[in-house]
Amino acid sequence: VQGSIEVETKQVMNNLWEVLSTGGATFAHVAKTTIYLTDIADFPAVNKVYELALGTARPARSTVQVVALPKSARVEIECIASLT
After folding, report:
1. Rg for the chain (alpha carbons), in Å?
2. Taking 90 as the threshold, does the pLDDT of residue 84 lie above it?
3. pTM of the predicted structure, to 2 decimals
4. Which of 5, 24, 42, 79 has a 20 to 30 Å separation from 69 between CA atoms?
């Protein structure tokens, strides 16, 4: 996705939503996320989009800066969800 870090983060959150909903889950089922950023200075902007997408869900979270991500992405978010 080309554009701002906010645009890229919104796309990541939309992709996560699609994967979760396909499995019968929502963000309320997410227990833990890990956010990978190529520039930790982007954290405030990413965090705003992340919090808006999650609504009232507040899973445990780690955020780390990495040297690079596949396909020149600036943000990647991994999540673990449980339906039990």
Report:
1. 12
2. no
3. 0.94
4. 24
